[in-house]
Amino acid sequence: MFELTYLGQSEMPDHAPLETKRFLIVTGKGGVGKTTVCAAEALALAQKGKRVLVCMCNAKERLSTMLGSAPIGHEITPVAQNVWAVNMDPESALQEYGQMALHSKTLFKLLFDNKYVRTFFRAVPGMQEWTMLGKAWWHTTETRSDGSNVYDVVILDAPATGHGLDMLRVPKVILDVVPPGLLRRDAERAWNLFRDPENCAVVLVTLPEEMPTSETIELARAINVELELPIGKIVVNGVLPPLFSPEERTALEAVTPTTSTSAPEVAVRVARARSMRERVQAESLERLSVELPISPSFLPQLFQDAATPAAIRELAKRLT
Questions:
Q1: Which of 28, 62, 129, 255 sits at 20 to 30 Å (Cα–Cα) from 41?
Q2: Max Cα separation, the chain?
Q3: Could you tell me if residue 276 is inside a domain?
Q4: What pLDDT score was predicted for residue 109?
């Protein structure tokens, strides 16, 4: 049985040097804290001197609350020192991509800015996903006048598991079915980056619970086997420090709870519930450690609101 020794800040393992990457793809089951990890990781990388861009995919925007910034729309916005963010939407991303490709806003409007072309692009399978994924990738290619990168690291806050996989499949589909041309060329460049472990890493986020654990293991297999993308880090969010030993958990769970409101009986029920959660956590961490390609890192359960700048700064310290 896997037994967690709670890791303090100085003991937090960092299995993948994410600061050496150009592109990070953060994904996982919905509700596991992907955006929280993106925010904390962005601050952690910025503290190491990196210029970081966080790209969200037409999301219900919460990052600005986490970082204490102005609301984030489809224009790139500074959200913290050395951190910028954008909430991409397909139509704005298509417009930006078209202007970059054609090198002319006038020509783009002539060719793309009509309802028939927009309807066509919405109907093409995978095109909306590619406009956002392609935009996030393109920001890794941006350079300043001195030749340095505009952003050292681009973090993609990818959609949840199923939609995230569908998005990551799109460049491979383009390479399989689209004839040579601009779209295929860019998809090939992006796909080469995504598969390069020196420059790209997938970050899987999960919780120490049964369903997120099972889904994360399946997701890791799809990313490794089907897409052959490099998994650089696995973050288990919301980990509780264990209060009970395995023997104490066994004893507590053997107790038949009552409905008594006496203080001792209430304390036993609370302890039993905590013990059961610790058991599920230990079993989940055991599965993740055995069945995933790299050992997970842990972020602690915060007992205050995690969607605050103070909480995100604390989590960034843990990641650092």
A1: 129
A2: 76
A3: no
A4: 58
How far is it, in rounded angstroms, from Cα 265 to Cα 134?
Answer: 58
- Which two three-digit tokens encode residue 133? 């994924």
Residue 110, both tokens: 């002539």
Which carries the bigger pLDDT value, residue 116 or residue 41?
A: 41
Task: Give the pLDDT mean for 191-220.
Answer: 96
Domain assignment present for residue 15? The answer is: no
- Give the angle subtended at the CA of 155 by the CAs of 152 and 161, to the nearest 5°: 160
Give the number of domains in the chain. Answer: 1
pTM comes to 0.87
Selection from 104, 234, 215 nearest residue 162 by Cα: 215
Domain region containing 63:
21-242+294-318
Interacting residues of 229 by C-beta distance below 8 A, sequence separation 6+: 25, 168, 194, 195, 200, 202, 223
CA distance 134 to 216: 25
| Amino acid code (one letter) for 140 | T
Q: What DSSP designation does 159 have?
A: P
Give the three-class secondary structure for 105: helix
User: What was the pLDDT predicted at 103?
Assistant: 56
User: What is the residue type of 52?
Assistant: V
Could you give the CA distance from residue 170 to residue 85 in angstroms, rounded to a whole number?
23
Residue type, 319: L
- Token pair for 86: 């954008």
Residue 259 resides in a domain: no
What are phi and psi for residue 263, nearest 5 degrees? Answer: -55, -45
Neighbours of 146 (CB within 10 A): 5
CA distance 234 to 286: 14
Tell how strand 77-80 and strand 200-206 pair up. unpaired
Q: Give the number of residues written for the chain.
A: 320
Residue 305 within any structural domain of the chain: yes
- Looking at residues 239-254, what average pLDDT do you find? 91
pLDDT at 273: 92
Output the domain CATH number for residue 100: 3.40.50.300
- DSSP-assigned beta bridge partners for residue 231: 202
pLDDT, tens digit, 9 for 90 and up, residues 137-152: 999 999 999 999 999 9
